[in-house]
Write a structure and sequence with these properties.
elongated; 5 helices
Length: 132
């Protein structure tokens, strides 16, 4: 919702060139919401869903921070200032989501590594018991 509000603010402002970033972030968030709601993450195991969500959060926080600084410092109309302020709020929200998603990603990766077979010793000169 915050990405959509920022998108609307950028459309109404002089900084309309920044409207593509919030639109893409809104569509990516909508896609991931749809994917989790329709259980696509359980059907398509080949895609690492927590990693995709993690990368989306990191990129969104960086992009929103950068365009918010540019919108607030370069443009003086009210809609640009509002979009910049909402962008800073979105940066904080995505940073919190980044932190929570990072914890989920670590849990997901630990779970995936525990499914791997336990240490098989390879027979060879480096692992010989006598140390020849």
């Amino acid at each position: 919702v915050l990405s959509f509000i920022i998108f609307i603010c950028y459309i109404a402002s002089l900084a309309a060139s920044f409207m593509m970033a919030p639109l893409l972030e809104f569509l990516l968030a909508l896609f991931l919401l749809f994917a989790y709601a329709s259980k696509l993450n359980e059907k398509f195991k080949g895609l690492h869903w927590p990693l995709a969500d993690f990368l989306r959060c990191v990129s969104a926080a960086i992009i929103y921070f950068a365009i918010s600084i540019a919108a607030v410092s370069k443009y003086s109309d009210g809609a640009s200032k509002a979009a910049g302020v909402f962008g800073f709020v979105a940066t904080i929200v995505y940073a919190i989501d980044f932190y929570l998603t990072f914890n989920d990603l670590v849990t997901f990766l630990k779970q995936g590594s525990s499914d791997a077979p336990e240490g098989h010793k390879s027979e060879g000169m480096w692992n010989s018991p006598a140390g020849d």
